[in-house]
Write a structure and sequence with these properties.
The complex is a heterodimer of chains A (104) and B (181). Chain A has 104 residues and is an all-alpha fold. Chain A is built from three helices and one strand. Chain A has a domain of 69 residues: Helix Hairpins, CATH 1.10.287.3510. The chains are: A mainly alpha (104), B mainly alpha (181). Strand 1 of chain A pairs antiparallel with strand 1 of chain B, so a sheet runs across the interface.
Chain lengths: 104, 181
């Protein structure tokens, strides 16, 4: 028997680590990796909530939301990595602090 | 028994996530991220969602990681990238972000453990009925059919966006700027 608070603690710890990565890193690739970690934290929360509410009858809503988050993550990574390649071709580095000029 | 496995898996997840965030080499970060994904899939197995666990391994640790590794292979320049990354990310420059995240973490932990609540003491039942793929499919093409359409539209728009961005990047003239990092 696993208390639901353990899973909530795991999820929020992972989310805090992901937010630290988004705030602290300046490389665009690492920011995308941190976003992946945050999405994983949310997904753990969905699955645990679905499990928590599936005592009388089986509840599969969490896994369906997991499918939606998975699709979202795949789309986000496809667009984000194409932006990474575009940025590297234009600027030859991945520092997002250099993207402060609104010009071509 | 299940608690021990859960604690070990959670520790692996948190340690590998911290190593992913603080790594300087992108390849090392991706390897730690793969370990994190596999441990998350083990959490799903413990929670009884075997379909989600299999999808986690196939899609996250398979497809998305392959995308990341391809881009890293295209962009990684060995010691030069490492030197740039050491210049970009340092522990002394990320104290503010660390303090902000610590505040968030303490707040969430306070809400979870210290605030009076009923949910923090309840037990997650591990003997709930298992969810089969057939049930998920029936739900997915019954009451959740709009979700499937929205997911398909989202994937299509992401595909078109990725093609457009890479095409415009290929057709634009490449202006090498000074790379004094």
């Amino acid at each position: 028997m696993i208390p639901i608070s353990w899973i909530l603690f795991l999820s929020l710890s992972l989310f805090s680590i992901g937010i630290f990565g988004v705030l602290a890193r300046r490389n665009l690739l690492f920011i995308l990796i941190s976003l992946e970690l945050m999405l994983n934290a949310v997904v753990i929360l969905f699955i645990a909530g679905s499990r928590y509410h599936s005592v009388p009858v089986a509840n599969s809503d969490g896994q369906i939301m997991y499918l939606l988050v998975l699709t979202l993550a795949a789309s986000e990574i496809a667009v984000g990595l194409s932006l990474v390649i575009h940025m590297y071709r234009q600027h030859h580095h991945l520092d997002i602090d250099k993207l402060n000029k609104l010009r071509d | 028994m299940l608690e021990t496995i859960f604690i070990i898996t959670a520790a692996i997840i948190l340690i590998c996530a911290l190593l992913t965030i603080t790594a300087h080499n992108v390849v090392h970060a991706l390897l730690y991220l793969v370990v994190t994904m596999l441990a998350v899939s083990l959490i799903f197995f413990i929670l009884g969602s075997s379909f989600a666990a299999a999808l986690q391994i196939i899609v996250y640790a398979g497809a998305i990681m392959v995308l990341f590794i391809f881009v890293t292979m295209m962009l990684h320049q060995g010691e030069k990238s490492l030197a740039q990354e050491r210049h970009l990310f340092h522990f002394s420059t990320s104290i503010t972000a660390f303090v902000l995240c610590s505040i968030l973490f303490c707040e969430l932990t306070f809400i979870l453990f210290l605030a009076p609540s009923e949910t923090s003491n309840t037990i997650l039942i591990a003997q709930a009925p298992a969810i089969t793929v057939k049930q998920i499919g029936q739900q997915l093409y019954g009451p959740y059919s709009l979700l499937v359409v929205i997911s398909a539209l989202m994937l299509l728009s992401a595909l078109i966006t990725a093609i457009h961005i890479s095409k415009s990047a290929a057709s634009a003239q490449i202006k090498p700027e000074d790379t004094n990092l």
